[in-house]
């Protein structure tokens, strides 16, 4: 079935993975929204199946122009609370005004339904948007992926120290960690976008323990060894693991 999918935050890393996956389906055309199309590669700007709309997140006319004719809009914004909260509300309002039936929120995160306000402040806007979607005339979709493995290994998580080749973690290492990769989450998001019956909360994640995650990633290495002295960080006891 022919479908038109809108992707906001079109210049982002996850958006590019989602678009790549969407275009595997010959019946799909894509409308992308971003503030600076010059960031996009020629393969994207030259594609006859991609239409790009330029605009700031608070430009209501540009937002309405972007969502017109889409069957579903995927929000791939990642930015400050104003963008994630007010920016998404403006995008949702544009969808409602133009009768877009489904909206995939800019979550792609741990299960926000289990986290109280303030426990993970960057995700508070996602909780607001979940409520906002329930109050508007549109079907909201929330894709919960845990942590991206690419983020897991990055400085942001403060888990992996590449200089010392050391992993730090809380607990015993046998607790469940929810995770997936950008690529797998993008394939899943594209499949959800195409499935008109998929609404509400959707889970895409492996549920393995910390040790299993690390062993999967290092499958050709020896089993990890726990260091003798647990280190302390941010007031919590963290274990050290050398690879
Ligand atoms: N669970 C995890 O571990 C994890 C990790 C990372 C991301 N995520 C989620 O994945 C999604 C996408 O992340 P990503 O890694 O693809 O992020 P990214 O590469 O940083 O892309 C962010 C997008 O948001 C746009 N943006 C930022 N500030 C803006 C503003 N003020 N006005 C308009 N557009 C703005 C950027 O546009 P410009 O190019 O113009 O700046 C870009 O298109 C988000 O929902 C994020 O929460 C989850």
Features:
243 residues, globular, Rossmann fold, binds NADP nicotinamide-adenine-dinucleotide phosphate, 8 helices, 27% strand, alpha/beta, 7-stranded parallel beta sheet, 31% helix
In brief, what are we looking at here?
The protein has 243 residues and is α/β, with parallel strands linked by helices. The chain has eight helices and 15 strands. Strand 8 (160-161) and strand 9 form a beta hairpin.
Please identify the top-level CATH class of the domain at 3-146 and 180-205: Alpha Beta
Bound molecules: NADP nicotinamide-adenine-dinucleotide phosphate
Residue ranges: pLDDT <50 for 5 or more in a row? 222-236
Provide the spatial order of strands within the biggest beta sheet.
3-2-1-4-5-6-11
Q: Count every beta strand, where a strand is a DSSP E run of 2 or more residues.
A: 15
Main β sheet profile: 7 strands, parallel
The class by helix and strand makeup works out as: alpha/beta
CATH architecture of the domain at 3-146 and 180-205: 3-Layer(aba) Sandwich
Number of helices: 8
Mean of residue pLDDT values: 90
> What is the 3D form?
globular
- Give the N-terminus to C-terminus distance in angstroms: 48 Å
Q: In what range is the share of β-strand residues?
A: 25-35%
**Quick one: CATH superfamily of the domain at 3-146 and 180-205?**
NAD(P)-binding Rossmann-like Domain
Radius of gyration: 20 Å
CATH topology of the domain at 3-146 and 180-205: Rossmann fold
* Order of SSEs: EHEHEHEHEHEEHEEEHEEHEEE
Helical coverage, percent range: 25-40%
